[in-house]
Amino acid sequence: MIRAGADPVRAAAAVNVVARTWREWMARARGEVPKRPAGPELRDLARQVEWALGDAFAGTALRLNRTDPKAWLRRADAREEAERSREEAEHPPPSVPVVEHGLLDRVKAVKVMKILDKAGVLGDWREEAEVPGTLVDEGREQ
User: Fold this and answer.
1) Are 84 and 110 members of one domain?
2) I need a surface site. Which of 35, 106, 137, 142 has the fewest CB within 10 A?
3) For the chain (length 142 residues), average pLDDT per consecutive 10?
4) What is the rounded CA–CA span in Å between residue 77 and residue 50?
């Protein structure tokens, strides 16, 4: 039934499995219920459901691509965005403080170069930057 396009919960109900029981089985198969781990039968059932869902979605996508390519592209874009949002929700980026700074104008940049040169932190940059008129050239002490 799922391969033909039925929702897994409704397919389970068609064979007399209550929705709550079905959801618990799938949660156990995914390892979300540590107190009641799934046995090999539940894990196999979940794997078969995933394969059937994959077949159903792939078949639908192929038919839609042939009959209405624009709708297929819209759906693909929407699915990609939903997947990206789900990934970001499940795995948020590390909390790093945001440092906001403005770009230096040429005058400030030259001043910074002079300060860094006096401090000796630029190393031997003079040979590496022998292009007259560059920012590095302007920052040199005369």
Assistant:
1) no
2) 142
3) 89 93 92 90 92 88 84 81 83 62 67 77 58 51 50
4) 22
Q: How many C-beta neighbours within 10 Å does residue 66 have? A: 9
* CA–CA dist 19, 2 (Å, integer): 15
Give the structural domain span for 115.
Answer: 106-139
For residue 136, the Cα-to-chain-centroid distance in whole angstroms is 39
Q: What does the DSSP 8-state code read for residue 4?
A: T
CA distance 8 to 6: 6
Predicted model pTM: 0.50
Contact (Cβ atoms closer than 8 angstroms) between residue 36 and residue 50:
no
Q: CB–CB of 11/2 below 8 Å? A: yes
Helix axes 40-67, 19-29, angle to 10 degrees: 100
Q: Are residues 16 and 73 in the same domain?
A: yes
Same domain, 62 and 128: no
Q: Answer whether 71's CB lies under 8 Å from 19's CB.
A: no
In a domain, 47, yes or no: yes
Alpha-carbon distance 60 to 4, whole Å? 10
